[in-house]
Amino acid sequence: MCPMQMNREDFPILGREVYGRPLVYLDNAATTQKPRCVVEAISEEYYNVNANVHRGVHFLSQQATELHEASRETVRSFINARSTSEIIFTRGTTESINLLAFSFGEAFCHEGDEIIVTEMEHHSNIVPWQMLCQRRGMKLRVVPMLDDYTLDLATYRSLLNERTRLVCVTHVSNVLGTVNPVREIIAEAHAHDIPVLVDGAQSAPHIAVDVQQLDCDFFAFSGHKIYGPTGVGVLYGRERLLDQLPPYQGGGEMIRNVSFERTTYNDLPYRFEAGTPDYVGTHALAVALDYVTALGMDHIHAYESQLASYAYEQLSQIENLVIYGGGNSSLSGGMAGSAISFNIRGIHHLDLGTLLDRLGIAVRTGHHCAEPLMRRLGIEGTVRASFALYNTRDEVDALVAGIQRVVRMF
Ligand code: PLP
């Protein structure tokens, strides 16, 4: 048995049935299931440690603070940031990007400036930038996608100019599984002194991320997509840049001194963390990161890539099935093992998803929060199967058999 499959035991939910059938959970790009150690860390902290963090003189508050700050160090080490000052806890990728769009916009953006996004972004990496552009009278420039599902890098290069303030790009597409050449994209932007935000929501769970090696300026990811709890995420920012950004929200924790005349702000990273943080969530996130680190991100990546290649091969053999994405071809930059999107000609994606559900197979259907990409593909939506470390070839076979059964019904 593959070493990853042995870890299914760690995820109690995978043992349950739906509609009297064994659950086949293939909606991991939306959220992953949680290992027992993460669920237990949450209850253990509420049962035994719970107290508000920072500034508490009492034992429990200090213990909770230690756990919370140790979690920041775990995150730092997980993405190889230089310092914990660069790790801001947020509610998730969406909040990380909104924080950046506000604070970066305040610090660096003026009328006539431009922000670059790509055609394959999730709405979370489009709308906050669109809102900033509206506030400031700026322009959103879009890197198109080519027919092989990769980004048009020639057009990207031509879009970089002296008005460009920031490049925002997803590391891995949540729809296509395309792994974008972010190192190259970052190097091109840096040649023009333009910083880059990488949306790592779909890469952090599948690929070992090293923000220093990538040389990105900002990196955002969500805890719940990497076996951690909902409601916790991370914004990494290069200290030199974060230092120049004003706070996003005002309140407790983010201040040094407050008077009615004037407030001074706290140091990094607390300046960006107004209010009581989800300290139980940050600790549980660290437990999740320790869990995947112990398995080895490279092992996880290798296993998931093999599984996704197998799924790609098997699905390709189904008549009338169209896959959106380049699979493991070198053209696509290789698949991270996160997502395969497809449709069956003549069957609506919603019908296919609903009928698969009745067979116990959980897939996602719809536009996957990437409406501009759907428009580019000329479709309304897809069925998306997305994989995690606990998925198996048997589950891929169940998906293929399920699709074939639905096709026969039609
Ligand atoms: N970016 C990408 C590429 C995603 O796939 C997602 C979620 O699916 C997000 C951003 C938003 O993540 P969250 O809803 O956890 O904030």
Describe the structure.
This protein has 410 residues and is an alpha/beta fold. It is 38% helix and 17% strand. It is built from 13 helices and 17 strands. A hairpin with a 2-residue loop joins strand 1 and strand 2. Helix 1 runs antiparallel to helix 9 (279-295) and helix 10 (297-316) runs parallel beside helix 13. It is globular, with a radius of gyration of 22 Å. The structure holds pyridoxal-5'-phosphate.
Short description:
By secondary structure, this protein is an alpha/beta fold. 38% of the residues lie in helices and 17% in strands.
Q: Which of globular, elongated, flat, extended, rod-shaped describes the shape?
A: globular
Largest sheet: 7 strands, mixed
What oligomeric assembly is this protein in?
Answer: single chain
Proportion of strand residues:
15-25%
Strand order of the largest sheet: 4-10-9-8-7-5-6
Helix content: 25-40%
Average pLDDT works out at: 95
Q: Helical stretch count?
A: 13
Given helix and strand content, the structural type is alpha/beta
Order of helices and strands: EEEHHEHEHEHEHEHEEHEEHHEEHEEHEH
Total number of beta strands: 17
Q: What are the segments in which pLDDT stays under 50 over at least 5 consecutive residues? A: 329-333
Q: Kindly provide the radius of gyration, computed on alpha-carbon positions and rounded to a whole number of angstroms.
A: 22 Å
Ends distance: 36 Å
* Small-molecule components bound: pyridoxal-5'-phosphate
